[in-house]
């Protein structure tokens, strides 16, 4: 019988959920449930064992600067498996603080530089001019998205050939006040500043569910072959 259990890893849910991003995981579970799939969510926190290859979807939410410093110390042990997972085209969604930690570094407003995983060529810096807070609206390849942002970090891409924005801003700031773009799309990785949660926008949620089901099919086919 086909394996109908979708495996989701929720990275540092206990530390990186200040902004209610767990709603994204709830939406994904709801949509999968409607299609007859069960979901198993593993909350991966400090010192937990984790191998990205065991999963169909990785989720990493937003958080405050202090929690980001704590998480950043634990994160490097997972760099290799997360990097391979992303480069193989598997789905991952990172919101705000989680998105920032996938890049090279985040320089905070207290002058601390938090080292990111360095998987994606981008960096984030605090600039005294503004905290980006408020409603956002932007256009993505799946249509318009409405959300909410709340961040002091301004994100800049260091390799614009490799990285493409997730959306073009209509309202709000997104990555930074200059570029008029929101988030990042690289293969099936999505980074975004959108809370709300983002996946209340079912156009995006449905697109991610499709990616998850494709990944699940491939992963379980490989498992059967290697038995
Ligand atoms: N909303 C968030 O995840 C905030 C991320 C980060 N602490 C910032 O202020 O930029």
From TrEMBL:
Its recorded reaction(s) are: beta-D-GlcNAc-(1->4)-Mur2Ac(oyl-L-Ala-gamma-D-Glu-L-Lys-D-Ala-D-Ala)-di-trans,octa-cis-undecaprenyl diphosphate + L-glutamine + ATP + H2O = beta-D-GlcNAc-(1->4)-Mur2Ac(oyl-L-Ala-D-isoglutaminyl-L-Lys-D-Ala-D-Ala)-di-trans,octa-cis-undecaprenyl diphosphate + L-glutamate + ADP + phosphate + H(+); L-glutamine + H2O = L-glutamate + NH4(+)
Tell me yes or no: is Ligase among this UniProt entry's keywords.
yes
Name the positions where substrate binds: 131
InterPro entries, alphabetically? Class_I_gatase-like, CobQ_GATase1, GATase_3, Lipid_II_synth_GatD
Keyword Disulfide bond on entry = no
Alphabetical GO biological process terms: cell wall organization; cobalamin biosynthetic process; peptidoglycan biosynthetic process; regulation of cell shape
Supply the alphabetized keyword list: Cell shape, Cell wall biogenesis/degradation, Glutamine amidotransferase, Hydrolase, Ligase, Peptidoglycan synthesis
Query: What EC identifiers does the entry list?
Result: 6.3.5.13, 3.5.1.2
Question: In what pathway does it function?
Answer: Cell wall biogenesis; peptidoglycan biosynthesis
> Origin, by domain of life?
Bacteria
Residue ranges annotated for the CobB/CobQ-like glutamine amidotransferase domain, each copy included: 7-201
One Pfam family matching this protein: GATase_3
Active-site feature positions:
96, 195
Extract the GO molecular function terms from the UniProt entry. Answer: carbon-nitrogen ligase activity on lipid II; glutaminase activity
Its assembly, as annotated, is: Forms a heterodimer with MurT.
Q: Please explain the role this protein plays, according to its UniProt record.
A: The lipid II isoglutaminyl synthase complex catalyzes the formation of alpha-D-isoglutamine in the cell wall lipid II stem peptide. The GatD subunit catalyzes the hydrolysis of glutamine to glutamate and ammonia. The resulting ammonia molecule is channeled to the active site of MurT.
Which protein family is named in the record?
A: Belongs to the CobB/CobQ family. GatD subfamily.
* Protein name (Swiss-Prot/TrEMBL): Lipid II isoglutaminyl synthase (glutamine-hydrolyzing) subunit GatD
């Amino acid at each position: 019988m086909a394996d109908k259990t979708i495996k989701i890893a929720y990275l540092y849910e206990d530390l990186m959920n200040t902004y209610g991003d767990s709603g994204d995981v709830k939406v994904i579970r709801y949509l999968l449930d409607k299609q007859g799939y069960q979901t198993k969510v593993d909350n991966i926190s400090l010192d937990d064992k984790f191998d990205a290859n065991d999963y169909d979807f990785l989720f990493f939410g937003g958080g405050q600067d202090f929690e980001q410093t704590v998480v950043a110390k634990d994160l490097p042990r997972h760099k290799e498996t997360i990097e391979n997972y992303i480069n193989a085209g598997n789905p991952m969604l990172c919101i705000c603080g989680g998105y920032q930690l996938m890049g090279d570094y985040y320089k905070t407003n207290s002058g601390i530089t938090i080292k990111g995983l360095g998987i994606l060529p981008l960096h984030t810096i605090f600039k005294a001019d503004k905290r980006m807070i408020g409603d956002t609206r932007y256009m993505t390849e799946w249509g318009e998205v409405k959300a909410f942002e709340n961040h002091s970090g301004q994100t800049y891409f260091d390799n614009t050939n490799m990285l493409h924005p997730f959306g073009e801003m209509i309202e709000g700031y997104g990555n930074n006040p200059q570029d008029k773009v929101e988030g990042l799309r690289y293969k099936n990785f999505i980074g975004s500043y959108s809370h709300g949660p983002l996946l209340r926008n079912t156009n995006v949620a449905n697109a991610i569910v499709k990616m998850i089901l494709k990944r699940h099919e491939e992963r379980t086919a490989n498992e059967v072959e290697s038995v």
